[in-house]
Amino acid sequence: GINTDIGPGATGHRGLAAVPGREVEFTALADQAIGYCHAIGGTAIHVMAGLVPEEERAAGAGVLVANLKATTAKAAEHGLTILLEPLNPRDMPGYFYSRVEQAAEIIDRVDAPNLKLMFDAYHVGACQGDILTRMREQRDRIGHVQIAAVPSRAEPDEGEIAYGAVLRALDGLGYDGWVGAEYLPRAGTDEGLVWLQSLGMSL
Questions:
Q1: Cα–Cα distance between 61 and 63 in angstroms, integer?
Q2: Nearest CA to 116 among 168, 61, 175?
Q3: Which of 1, 26, 104, 203 has the smallest C-beta neighbourhood within 10 Å, fewest atoms?
Q4: DSSP state letter for 15
Q5: Helices in the chain by DSSP H: which ranges?
Q6: Residue from 25, 55, 182, 191 carrying the catalytic annotation
Q7: 55 assigned to active site
Q8: Residue 43 burial by CB count (10 A; 0-12/13-18/19+): exposed, middle or buried?
């Protein structure tokens, strides 16, 4: 999977999907991502919602729903899934959504079979907690799972989250998709892979 581009310039943008007045620019970014993902044989695109001031959140929700209706229809022509990922406010202040329930509400409003939730246990843990309960509640909406330690965002063998329990719960829920290890290695990538053994998996 890939992300949509964060928008013009590296400062002040984290996507444009929910930003009022930027619909034309978002459409160009979404079309670009669909073209790239299809060309490389990818299966999913995380649509970046963007930074939206509190006073524009209601308008932003309407913009996001309209943008996603159009984008999911285009993505479906290539068999692609569109993903929404809430980002915790410590790492990404001002991002359109930080709670899984907010993304779930948007998914339900769009009502497209190829629109799913990216359940990033790191962001859920850093913002909300109660990961297993939320994972069970959102099971039918989950299209991808990501993991990292909380609060360090390092390998998932330290910190507050018992990832052995999380992975067993995913198996119990019948989840058969990918689990992405999206973390910041403590040292090098290869050295950090010992976390797999600590969770009972082989290298």
A1: 5
A2: 175
A3: 203
A4: B
A5: 23-40, 57-76, 100-110, 121-127, 131-137, 163-172, 189-192, 194-198
A6: 182
A7: no
A8: middle
State yes or no: is 155 an active-site residue.
no
Domains of the chain: 2-198 (3.20.20.150)
pLDDT of residue 10: 47
- Going by the DSSP 8-state scheme, the letter that residue 95 receives in this structure is B
Catalytic residue among 85, 155, 158, 191: 85
Sign of torsion, CA 146 87 125 104? Answer: negative
pLDDT at 9: 61
- pLDDT (tens digit, 9 = 90+) per residue, 171-186? 999 999 999 999 999 9
For residues 41 and 67, give the distance between their C-alpha atoms in angstroms, rounded to a whole number.
Answer: 23
CA 35-121-82 angle, 5° bins = 20
Backbone Cα Rg of the chain: 17
Pairing label, strands 142-147, 2-3: unpaired
DSSP assignment, residue 36? H
Name the token pair of 195. Answer: 């976390």
